[in-house]
Request: fold
Amino acid sequence: IMDCPLPAYDPAGDLMHAPIVLNPALMNLAYAWPVHRIGPDWQPRQAEPTFLVVFRDAQLNVQFAEINAVTAHVLSLLDQGLSGQQAFAQLATDMKHPDPQALQGFGQQLLISLREQGVLLGTRT
Reply:
């Protein structure tokens, strides 16, 4: 249970050029094991790095998705109040990416997808 009031945001804001508002009921989680698959019928024998994003959608239902390490890093950058462009520029530096401009194009599509899922709400107003 999280008491997470919604901040003011523009749901149609430009995700690349304005500071992004994350869903306030969001957890960006990293585990050494695939915790979301462990159960009576499946017990892993070795560690497997696993990244999950858990959040409440607009209908207040808890959702989760397995993400990769890069998306988890992007979410942590966006949590610092960055725009998409700033976050992907930092990601390019962190990864020593050979083509930072190509990463910006990929980033825009990722941000649109995350907004459609409800992970991102939009941009600051």
